[in-house]
Amino acid sequence: MNVSLDISMYPLKDEFCQPIIDFINRLEQAPGLVLERNSLSTQVFGDLQTIMGLMTKELETVFEQNPHTVFVMKMVGVNRSKADIHAC
């Protein structure tokens, strides 16, 4: 099953940029997923099991390094990477 995940990361510390960049760079190394970055969030598209396994691993890594980090995630049960938002 393919899904779409929208994820925002908020490290609660003064030097917040590098942990976000490091997190996204690790996500981009996962085979079989498509990532799209923007200034507000990162979207991940691909297999549900792959994404959830990756999130479990990467959230643990982030929380070990900086437990005062907030994540906001939204998920939909289809791949919307090519959705035509103007067709509504």
Summarize the structure.
With 88 residues, this protein is α+β, with helices and mostly antiparallel strands. The chain contains 2 helices and 4 strands; from the N terminus they run βαββαβ. Strands 2-3-1-4 form a 4-stranded antiparallel beta sheet.
Rg over CA atoms, rounded to whole Å, is 13 Å
**Low-pLDDT residue intervals, each spanning 5 or more residues:** none
Q: Could you estimate the helical fraction of the residues in percent? A: 25-40%
Question: How many individual domains?
Answer: 1
How many separate helices? 2
Strand coverage percent? 25-35%
Strand order of the largest sheet: 2-3-1-4
Largest sheet: 4 strands, antiparallel
Mean pLDDT over all positions: 94
Task: Kindly name the structural category.
Answer: alpha+beta
Number of E-type strands: 4
Under the CATH scheme, which class?
Alpha Beta
The H/E string reads EHEEHE
CATH architectural category: 2-Layer Sandwich
- At the fold tier of CATH, the topology name is Alpha-Beta Plaits
Q: How does the overall form come out from the CA principal axes?
A: globular
Q: How far is the first residue's CA from the last residue's CA? A: 25 Å
Characterization of the model:
The chain is of the alpha+beta class. The chain has one domain: 2-Layer Sandwich (Alpha-Beta Plaits). The protein contains two helices and four strands. The chain has helices spanning 17-28, 48-65, and strands at residues 2-11, 34-37, 42-47, 69-76. The protein has a four-stranded antiparallel beta sheet with strand order 2-3-1-4. β2 (34-37) and β3 form a beta hairpin. The longest helix has 18 residues, at 48-65.
